[in-house]
Amino acid sequence: MSTAQMNRPPQTLYVTIRRDELRQLKDEREQLQQEVMRLRSHIIQAQLDQPTGAQPALC
Coiled-coil ranges per the record (predicted)? Predict the structure, then answer.
């Protein structure tokens, strides 16, 4: 069974956000980016600390 697909132009969604909400979102994004960098550095350090040829443990 085939389905017909209608080609529609993309819709634009407009939202309103207060400045304090935007600032909070930017702060949260910055905190999350720092956390990602911290976790990546832990992973890299753990890989460097492993003996050559060792496989990481699966959780």
Answer: 15-49
